[in-house]
Amino acid sequence: SDITQLARINAARLRPAPIAVTPIIDGTPSGGEAQPLTSPSDAAVIGQVTFASSRDVDTALAAAAPWSAAPQDRAAILIRAADLFEAGFGEVFALLAVEAGKTLADAVAELREAVDFLRYYAVQARSLTAPARGVFTCISPWNFPLAIFSGQIAAALAAGNGVLAKPAETTPAIAAWAVAKLHEAGVPRSALQLLPGLGSVIGARLTSDARVNGVAFTGSTATARRIQTAMAKGCAPGTPLIAETGGLNAMIVDSTALPEQAIRDIVVSAFQSAGQRCSALRCLYVQEDIAQPFLTLLTGAMDELSLGDPWAIATDIGPVITREAADQINAYVEGAAKDGRLLHRLTAPTTGSFVAPALIRVSGIGDLAQEVFGPVLHVATFKAREIPQVIAAINATGYGLTFGLHSRIDDRVQTISEAVHAGNIYANRNQIGAIVGSQPFGGEGLSGTGPKAGGPLYLPRFTVSQADETTSAWDQPAQFEALTA
Ligand code: UN1
């Protein structure tokens, strides 16, 4: 029952496993100087991490080997790993809360997504005929430290590659947990190595070596550019880079929108996960005629949000990932306040790295120099006849990740959806929370290379023969759904 589950979650909270992360190379933990790992919730030291050295990278590159098991066997092992992930939910929630500041709701969704990725790619792998590329470097972000970390790895492994996994600097513990489960499920030690990296040195080595046959990366657009340069220098020509990068995501709400639904979807899209999703809503366009009552409803809804301990069931919004991130975002909001553009702001707890959700007035998305990766929503108004200019401004950012639209005029939904450049377009719903299998996730332009993660075309990129494979029976929703039912 729910109560039993909550009791187990609480038990995990009271007895968190001791956290000591090291590189895992060919199954062996590597030594070195340990550094403290701190929690964004209260700055407490929650464990120790030994980051990989250059020598660790040498050893890992020499030891890395493709996974030579038959596709059926790889699939069975990945599905076993999914089962182990699910069984470990208490540990997962505890780690995600203390290390990443994730609320319980976010942690549940994150575990679900990780498990879905494992099963989805496993099912696809069963009918895989194209050979693996060899060894993939997988570099993942801290905002989905389990789901994206596991998703990249699951795809690379399902296709039969070996993996050199570099988790984000701030979230190595949940990554180490996932690697331990994958090894326990039967992934060979040589096919999955963990290289927690501090700064950019380890990542640079792992993306510029001729023994690396592909790179999967999720993170900033700027880092993706650096990776591309590094790969061009060190990897064989044509080595694939699969990148998911930043966004400047907009939503248009016209005067026919259902206010209560639109407000709910805006609050979720802009503030859930403390706005730390690349899919999050950054710039809301509200039609001028309804703007005043609509913004009153919106600020009222914001006031209902509760910030605090990510473990508390009642908490909607936890901390942002680090003190530095909080300071930067808070300084940005202060700047808007000085300019008289701050429309509304909540108050945040003073311990831990919290940012109070804020609403900032802009004239349009062009005012946003770059993505503010936190709970900060910009608002602009438009007149009905200005819709073409609004669309042009959204497209002019060069990003193209998510886009939201609230309107009850079907023709308008159709026309605007076709005109906006974005990988994921959501009408009359929130614009975060892509779903493996049914709503694959990925952007265009500055937002990523494609193909979409959790979609039928993702796995073929990890093999040498994409063209043949994409035309065969790749997507097998029935099999996937049977597994996840
Ligand atoms: C990201 O924020 O890096 O649609 C990806 C979503 C997620 C993907 C976000 N599943 O919110």
Automatic annotation (TrEMBL):
Aldehyde dehydrogenase domain sequence ranges: 33-463
Domain of life: Bacteria
Active site: 244, 278
Entry function: Oxidizes proline to glutamate for use as a carbon and nitrogen source.
Family of this protein: In the C-terminal section; belongs to the aldehyde dehydrogenase family.
Protein name stated in the entry: Bifunctional protein PutA
Organism this protein belongs to: Pseudoprimorskyibacter insulae
Name of the gene: putA
Residues of the full protein shown: 518 to 1002 of 1142
